Amino acid sequence: MFSAVLATVLTGLAAVNAAPPLTGTIVPGTTGALGNAAIVEGNPAGVTYTATLPNITTSNIRGFVAGTSNANGTGVFFNINLSGLPDASLGPFLYHIHDQPVPANGNCTATLAHQDPYIRGEKPPCDPTQPETCQTGDLAGKHGNITTSPFQTAYLDLYLSTAQGPASFFGNRSIVIHTSNTTRLTCANFTLTSGNGTNSNAASSGGNGTVTGSNPVPSPFTGSAAATLISAGAVIAGVAALVV
Protein backbone atom coordinates (compact mmCIF):
# COMPACT_ATOMS: atom_id res chain seq x y z
CA MET A 1 0.00 0.00 0.00
CA PHE A 2 2.81 2.39 0.89
CA SER A 3 4.39 2.16 -2.57
CA ALA A 4 1.07 3.10 -4.17
CA VAL A 5 0.57 6.02 -1.79
CA LEU A 6 4.15 7.18 -2.37
CA ALA A 7 3.64 7.07 -6.13
CA THR A 8 0.54 9.25 -5.74
CA VAL A 9 2.48 11.75 -3.64
CA LEU A 10 5.38 11.86 -6.09
CA THR A 11 2.97 12.57 -8.94
CA GLY A 12 1.43 15.38 -6.91
CA LEU A 13 4.84 16.83 -6.08
CA ALA A 14 5.77 16.91 -9.76
CA ALA A 15 2.64 18.92 -10.48
CA VAL A 16 3.32 21.31 -7.61
CA ASN A 17 6.91 21.91 -8.68
CA ALA A 18 5.85 22.53 -12.28
CA ALA A 19 3.28 25.20 -11.44
CA PRO A 20 3.76 28.63 -9.84
CA PRO A 21 2.26 28.98 -6.35
CA LEU A 22 -1.41 29.92 -6.10
CA THR A 23 -2.12 29.23 -9.76
CA GLY A 24 -4.47 26.62 -11.10
CA THR A 25 -8.18 26.08 -11.27
CA ILE A 26 -10.26 24.58 -8.51
CA VAL A 27 -11.44 21.15 -9.59
CA PRO A 28 -14.64 20.30 -7.71
CA GLY A 29 -14.58 16.86 -6.18
CA THR A 30 -10.80 16.56 -5.99
CA THR A 31 -10.12 14.53 -2.87
CA GLY A 32 -7.38 12.67 -1.06
CA ALA A 33 -5.83 9.35 -1.98
CA LEU A 34 -7.63 8.00 1.10
CA GLY A 35 -10.94 9.72 0.34
CA ASN A 36 -12.77 12.70 1.82
CA ALA A 37 -12.06 13.96 5.31
CA ALA A 38 -14.50 12.73 7.94
CA ILE A 39 -16.46 14.96 10.31
CA VAL A 40 -14.98 14.64 13.80
CA GLU A 41 -17.44 13.96 16.62
CA GLY A 42 -16.94 13.46 20.35
CA ASN A 43 -14.31 16.13 20.90
CA PRO A 44 -13.80 16.61 24.66
CA ALA A 45 -15.62 19.61 26.12
CA GLY A 46 -13.69 22.70 27.11
CA VAL A 47 -10.40 21.79 25.43
CA THR A 48 -8.44 24.60 23.76
CA TYR A 49 -5.12 24.45 21.96
CA THR A 50 -3.44 27.76 21.16
CA ALA A 51 -0.48 28.63 18.92
CA THR A 52 0.95 32.00 19.98
CA LEU A 53 3.37 33.56 17.50
CA PRO A 54 6.73 34.42 19.05
CA ASN A 55 7.90 37.90 19.97
CA ILE A 56 11.14 38.01 18.01
CA THR A 57 13.15 40.46 15.88
CA THR A 58 13.00 38.52 12.61
CA SER A 59 9.23 38.92 12.22
CA ASN A 60 6.75 41.63 13.14
CA ILE A 61 3.79 39.23 12.97
CA ARG A 62 2.12 38.78 16.34
CA GLY A 63 -1.02 37.09 17.55
CA PHE A 64 -2.48 33.65 17.96
CA VAL A 65 -4.54 30.87 16.45
CA ALA A 66 -6.73 29.06 18.98
CA GLY A 67 -8.94 26.03 18.48
CA THR A 68 -11.62 25.05 21.02
CA SER A 69 -13.86 21.99 21.03
CA ASN A 70 -17.36 22.71 19.79
CA ALA A 71 -19.84 22.54 22.69
CA ASN A 72 -21.61 19.57 21.09
CA GLY A 73 -18.32 17.77 20.42
CA THR A 74 -18.53 18.06 16.63
CA GLY A 75 -15.59 19.93 15.14
CA VAL A 76 -13.48 22.77 16.49
CA PHE A 77 -14.12 26.50 16.76
CA PHE A 78 -11.10 28.52 15.63
CA ASN A 79 -10.35 32.08 16.71
CA ILE A 80 -7.61 33.87 14.74
CA ASN A 81 -6.12 37.21 15.80
CA LEU A 82 -3.05 38.47 13.91
CA SER A 83 -1.26 41.77 13.39
CA GLY A 84 2.00 43.07 11.94
CA LEU A 85 1.72 41.34 8.57
CA PRO A 86 4.23 42.49 5.90
CA ASP A 87 3.38 44.78 3.01
CA ALA A 88 0.14 43.84 1.28
CA SER A 89 2.03 43.28 -1.99
CA LEU A 90 3.29 40.01 -0.48
CA GLY A 91 -0.24 38.80 0.20
CA PRO A 92 -2.83 37.55 0.42
CA PHE A 93 -1.20 35.68 3.28
CA LEU A 94 -1.81 32.00 3.89
CA TYR A 95 -1.89 30.03 7.12
CA HIS A 96 -2.00 26.30 7.67
CA ILE A 97 -1.67 23.66 10.33
CA HIS A 98 1.55 21.79 9.54
CA ASP A 99 2.11 18.14 10.26
CA GLN A 100 5.09 18.46 12.58
CA PRO A 101 5.84 20.81 15.49
CA VAL A 102 8.42 23.58 15.32
CA PRO A 103 11.75 22.33 16.71
CA ALA A 104 13.68 24.14 19.42
CA ASN A 105 15.86 25.92 16.81
CA GLY A 106 12.78 27.63 15.34
CA ASN A 107 13.14 26.33 11.78
CA CYS A 108 9.69 26.44 10.16
CA THR A 109 10.84 24.14 7.36
CA ALA A 110 11.02 21.32 9.90
CA THR A 111 7.24 21.47 10.30
CA LEU A 112 7.08 19.65 6.94
CA ALA A 113 3.91 19.79 4.86
CA HIS A 114 0.33 20.66 5.80
CA GLN A 115 -1.58 18.31 8.06
CA ASP A 116 -2.99 16.00 5.40
CA PRO A 117 -3.95 12.56 6.73
CA TYR A 118 -6.04 11.77 3.65
CA ILE A 119 -3.06 12.53 1.34
CA ARG A 120 -4.88 15.10 -0.76
CA GLY A 121 -1.93 17.36 -1.61
CA GLU A 122 -1.96 21.10 -2.31
CA LYS A 123 -2.93 21.01 -6.01
CA PRO A 124 -5.42 21.68 -7.40
CA PRO A 125 -6.40 24.41 -4.91
CA CYS A 126 -8.84 23.63 -2.14
CA ASP A 127 -12.51 24.15 -2.99
CA PRO A 128 -13.98 25.97 0.06
CA THR A 129 -17.48 24.90 -0.95
CA GLN A 130 -16.37 21.29 -0.41
CA PRO A 131 -14.15 21.49 2.70
CA GLU A 132 -14.25 17.73 3.17
CA THR A 133 -12.14 17.42 0.01
CA CYS A 134 -9.41 19.79 1.27
CA GLN A 135 -6.34 19.07 3.36
CA THR A 136 -7.47 19.07 6.99
CA GLY A 137 -4.74 21.55 7.88
CA ASP A 138 -5.47 23.99 5.03
CA LEU A 139 -7.26 26.58 7.15
CA ALA A 140 -6.75 29.37 4.61
CA GLY A 141 -8.05 27.22 1.77
CA LYS A 142 -11.18 26.18 3.66
CA HIS A 143 -11.94 29.45 5.47
CA GLY A 144 -10.17 32.27 3.59
CA ASN A 145 -6.75 33.90 3.35
CA ILE A 146 -5.38 36.67 5.54
CA THR A 147 -6.26 39.84 3.62
CA THR A 148 -5.86 42.63 6.20
CA SER A 149 -3.57 43.59 9.05
CA PRO A 150 -4.69 43.41 11.77
CA PHE A 151 -6.73 40.32 10.91
CA GLN A 152 -9.44 38.67 12.96
CA THR A 153 -11.82 35.85 12.11
CA ALA A 154 -13.61 32.93 13.74
CA TYR A 155 -15.25 29.81 12.31
CA LEU A 156 -16.17 26.19 12.92
CA ASP A 157 -14.04 23.50 11.26
CA LEU A 158 -15.70 20.07 11.25
CA TYR A 159 -12.65 18.03 10.27
CA LEU A 160 -10.17 18.63 13.12
CA SER A 161 -9.89 17.11 16.57
CA THR A 162 -8.92 18.30 20.05
CA ALA A 163 -8.71 14.69 21.27
CA GLN A 164 -5.34 12.96 21.20
CA GLY A 165 -5.13 9.88 19.02
CA PRO A 166 -6.88 10.52 15.69
CA ALA A 167 -4.80 11.77 12.75
CA SER A 168 -7.15 14.78 12.73
CA PHE A 169 -5.70 15.90 16.10
CA PHE A 170 -3.88 19.22 15.75
CA GLY A 171 -2.80 19.91 19.34
CA ASN A 172 0.75 18.59 18.88
CA ARG A 173 1.31 20.25 15.51
CA SER A 174 2.08 23.82 14.45
CA ILE A 175 0.71 26.85 12.64
CA VAL A 176 2.72 28.46 9.83
CA ILE A 177 2.09 31.87 8.22
CA HIS A 178 3.09 32.24 4.55
CA THR A 179 3.31 34.91 1.87
CA SER A 180 1.25 34.35 -1.26
CA ASN A 181 4.18 32.53 -2.89
CA THR A 182 4.29 30.14 0.12
CA THR A 183 7.45 31.57 1.72
CA ARG A 184 7.28 30.80 5.43
CA LEU A 185 7.26 33.93 7.59
CA THR A 186 6.76 32.67 11.13
CA CYS A 187 5.40 29.68 13.00
CA ALA A 188 4.44 28.43 16.44
CA ASN A 189 3.45 25.21 18.16
CA PHE A 190 -0.01 24.53 19.50
CA THR A 191 -0.09 24.01 23.26
CA LEU A 192 -2.91 23.00 25.58
CA THR A 193 -4.33 26.15 27.20
CA SER A 194 -7.62 24.85 28.59
CA GLY A 195 -9.26 21.55 29.48
CA ASN A 196 -8.17 17.93 29.66
CA GLY A 197 -5.79 17.15 26.84
CA THR A 198 -5.71 13.39 27.47
CA ASN A 199 -9.30 12.61 26.42
CA SER A 200 -9.33 10.40 23.32
CA ASN A 201 -13.03 9.72 22.72
CA ALA A 202 -13.28 11.53 19.39
CA ALA A 203 -14.69 9.61 16.44
CA SER A 204 -15.05 10.45 12.76
CA SER A 205 -18.07 10.11 10.53
CA GLY A 206 -19.10 10.94 7.01
CA GLY A 207 -15.76 10.44 5.29
CA ASN A 208 -14.87 7.65 2.90
CA GLY A 209 -11.21 7.20 3.80
CA THR A 210 -9.26 5.22 6.39
CA VAL A 211 -6.41 6.99 8.15
CA THR A 212 -3.70 5.44 10.26
CA GLY A 213 -0.49 6.76 11.73
CA SER A 214 0.98 8.23 14.89
CA ASN A 215 1.09 11.81 16.11
CA PRO A 216 4.32 13.81 16.36
CA VAL A 217 5.77 14.84 19.71
CA PRO A 218 6.23 18.62 20.03
CA SER A 219 9.54 20.21 20.99
CA PRO A 220 9.75 23.32 23.18
CA PHE A 221 9.89 26.44 21.02
CA THR A 222 9.90 30.17 21.78
CA GLY A 223 11.52 31.62 18.66
CA SER A 224 10.64 32.22 15.01
CA ALA A 225 11.89 30.63 11.82
CA ALA A 226 13.72 31.03 8.58
CA ALA A 227 11.51 32.11 5.68
CA THR A 228 11.96 29.15 3.38
CA LEU A 229 10.07 26.54 1.41
CA ILE A 230 9.56 22.88 2.15
CA SER A 231 11.46 20.30 0.13
CA ALA A 232 10.04 17.33 -1.71
CA GLY A 233 12.11 15.05 0.49
CA ALA A 234 10.50 16.49 3.60
CA VAL A 235 7.03 15.86 2.20
CA ILE A 236 7.89 12.25 1.39
CA ALA A 237 9.34 11.76 4.85
CA GLY A 238 6.21 13.16 6.41
CA VAL A 239 3.96 10.88 4.35
CA ALA A 240 6.11 7.89 5.22
CA ALA A 241 5.71 8.61 8.92
CA LEU A 242 1.97 9.03 8.48
CA VAL A 243 1.11 5.87 6.58
CA VAL A 244 3.67 3.38 7.84
Number of distinct helices: 3
Mean pLDDT: 80
Gross morphology: globular
- Helical content (DSSP H or I, runs of 4+): 10-25%
Poorly predicted runs are: 1-22, 209-244
Report strand %.
Answer: 15-25%
Strand order of the largest sheet: 5-7-8-2-3-4-6
Q: Give the terminus-to-terminus CA distance.
A: 9 Å
Please state the structural category. Answer: alpha+beta
Radius of gyration: 16 Å
What is the tally of beta strands?
9
Element-level helix/strand string: HEEEEEHEEEEH
Biggest β-sheet strands, sense, barrel: 7 strands, antiparallel
Description:
The chain is α+β, with helices and mostly antiparallel strands. The protein is 14% helix and 23% strand. The chain has three helices and nine strands, in the order αβββββαββββα. The chain has helices at 2-18, 139-143, 232-243; strands at 39-41, 48-52, 62-69, 76-83, 94-98, 151-157, 174-178, 184-194, 203-205. Helix 1 runs antiparallel to helix 3 (232-243). The protein is globular. The chain starts with a helix and ends with a helix. The model is unreliable at 1-22 and 209-244 (pLDDT under 50).
